Model the fold of this input.
Amino acid sequence: MSPPLVDPMVMRQAMGRFATGVAVITTEANGEPHGMTVNSLTSVSLDPPLLLVCFNHGARSAMAVVSSGRFVVNVLSRRQQAIGLRFAQRGEDHFAGLDLRYEGHRVPVVPQALAHLECDVERVVEAGDHTIVFGAVLDARIHEGVPLGFYAGKFSDIHQSGEESEHWFF
Done:
């Protein structure tokens, strides 16, 4: 195997310049709830409705998602930063002390998230140091609010556009 063309830390910093939202992936495997904060989430197709989420290899939540065959993407609001931090802690029981909420879904959800997208696992692909899970979206529910953002390794605010455009040519 040849050495990487780009230093992994430079790659991480460069991709960190791509602002994203924040979501918590939840599932239930063998009667036990699992969840993990992610920002590597992409809409793949509208017809049929598909999305993908990337997990680090070996992540307990990824293994739970794959074994259960279902998961929910919980898109977090700005007011849910503490939830994002809670589910980002490695090796923790993220649901400890929380009442499980299902809100009509087959697996637990984050209450009052901006969106719940319930998915069945469509396909799993191993790529580099990640496991990519494609989800067939079975149900989507949305709520009003302001999204929680992620930029340069930190939570950030996302604002509606309205500033004057920067022109390519000066």
